[in-house]
TrEMBL record:
<feature type="compositionally biased region" description="Polar residues">
    <location>
        <begin position="1"/>
        <end position="10"/>
    </location>
</feature>
<dbReference type="InterPro" id="IPR042217">
    <property type="entry name" value="T4SS_VirB10/TrbI"/>
</dbReference>
<dbReference type="InterPro" id="IPR005498">
    <property type="entry name" value="T4SS_VirB10/TraB/TrbI"/>
</dbReference>
<keyword id="KW-0472">Membrane</keyword>
<feature type="transmembrane region" description="Helical">
    <location>
        <begin position="53"/>
        <end position="72"/>
    </location>
</feature>
<protein>
    <submittedName>
        <fullName>Type IV secretion system protein VirB10</fullName>
    </submittedName>
</protein>
<keyword id="KW-0812">Transmembrane</keyword>
<dbReference type="GO" id="GO:0016020">
    <property type="term" value="C:membrane"/>
</dbReference>
<dbReference type="Pfam" id="PF03743">
    <property type="entry name" value="TrbI"/>
</dbReference>
<comment type="similarity">
    <text>Belongs to the TrbI/VirB10 family.</text>
</comment>
<feature type="region of interest" description="Disordered">
    <location>
        <begin position="1"/>
        <end position="22"/>
    </location>
</feature>
<keyword id="KW-1133">Transmembrane helix</keyword>
Length: 372
């Protein structure tokens, strides 16, 4: 391709050998081009910047020292307010009621009073002294009665019963065992052993959902092998049956196992039965084990930090009891609050488990659809 063709196709005028800008560069330009340049923020810190940083640190330390010194100083004396003088209360003077006003009687009222029957008066000598309403009895010559003698019980009155003394733990256990009768359990035969999964049968399964005890929730598992009837003639719980259960949260301090209750079993053919049976480990231990998080730093981190701060404050101020008592009280409050955090148990998905059958499972109602 010629130069004229390139010029017509691109519209650019090619540079000649004499117009090359690199031929006009001197030695200093090449040195400047090969020098590594850095941004301003990456340059070395000047001495004035170090001085400013040191001044800021000194100011912070000075303010901290002033604060601790003010906290360690004696408390200001609070002046008691002046006592208020209460004027004496004058005693109330009782009011003497004046004479009641006399209302004059009308002539009609005077006539009615004059005509009222008069009460007959009996002379004093005419009263019968034998039937007087007051009788005098002289007990000066009678022997004295001992007041300390116990009074005879009144007929019909309830007798006093002394409260029974409380029994000790061993005495109450002996009394309870002595009074308990012997329970007699009658033996019965299983009605349909070919269609019954008896109590205590262990159903193997594998968890399909992970478990986190921070919040309560549901869990699901799948049966990993067939479970036969009591006589072994039929498969009543086939492999790949579903297990539905629930687990709770709010574990106690030091607890390392999660409690799961399986409530329902669903077979692949649609048959369902209520289980109400707990989950156990493959070894038979109750509950399921997993990764336990005791939240140690959450429970004791704040209390430890406050204790360190209180100790440092007391050390700086020369052991002042005010700062030490304040830090210890704050640490105790934080420890009491954070100590209530329960542990968290996390159980991974796919962990093998077992279900302890807590009741007899009767499949006789759907016996026609069960294959041997």
């Amino acid at each position: 391709m010629t130069t004229d063709t390139l010029t017509r196709s691109t519209g650019l005028i090619p540079l000649s050998h004499q117009d090359d800008p690199r031929r006009s560069l001197d030695d200093n330009a090449l040195v400047e081009a090969s020098r590594n340049a850095f941004p301003i923020v990456a340059t070395r810190v000047a001495k004035r910047d170090r001085a400013g940083l040191a001044a800021g640190a000194a100011t912070a330390l000075l303010l901290g020292g002033i604060t601790f010194w003010s906290m360690a100083g004696p408390e200001p004396q609070v002046k008691a307010p002046p006592a208020r003088t209460v004027p004496p209360v004058k005693a109330a003077v009782p009011l003497t009621p004046g004479p009641a006003p006399v209302v004059p009687l009308t002539p009609a009222q005077e006539t009615a009073i004059a005509q009222a029957p008069q009460t007959a008066t009996v002379p004093h000598n005419a009263v019968d002294t034998a039937h007087a309403p007051v009788m005098v009895w002289d007990t000066s010559g009678a022997p004295e009665i001992a007041t300390s003698a116990p009074s005879a019980p009144i007929a019909g009155a309830p007798a006093k019963v002394s409260a029974p003394q409380p029994l000790s733990e061993n005495e109450s256990f002996a009394s309870r065992m002595g009074d308990a009768g012997t329970d007699v359990a009658s033996a019965t035969r299983i009605v349909d052993p070919a269609n019954t999964v008896t109590q205590g049968t262990l159903i193997p399964a594998v968890l399909e959902t992970a478990i986190d005890s921070d919040l309560p929730g549901y869990a699901r598992a799948v049966v990993s092998s067939d479970v036969r009837s009591f006589d072994g003639s039929r498969v009543l719980v086939p492999r790949s049956s579903r297990l539905i259960g629930q687990y709770k949260s709010g574990l106690a301090a030091g607890q390392t196992r999660a409690y799961v209750m399986w409530t329902r079993l669903i077979r692949p053919d649609g048959v369902t039965v209520q289980l109400a049976s707990p989950a156990i480990e493959y070894s038979g231990a109750s509950g399921l084990t997993g990764e336990v998080n005791s939240h140690f730093m959450k429970r004791f981190g704040a209390a430890g930090l406050l204790s360190v701060i209180g100790g440092l404050g007391a050390l700086v101020t020369g052991g002042t009891s005010l700062v030490l008592s304040g830090g210890s009280s704050a640490a105790s409050v934080a420890a009491q609050r954070d100590a209530q955090i329960p542990p968290t148990i996390r159980i991974r998905q796919g962990q093998p488990i077992r279900v302890f059958t807590a009741r007899d499972l009767n499949f006789s109602t759907i016996a026609g659809s069960i294959q041997p």
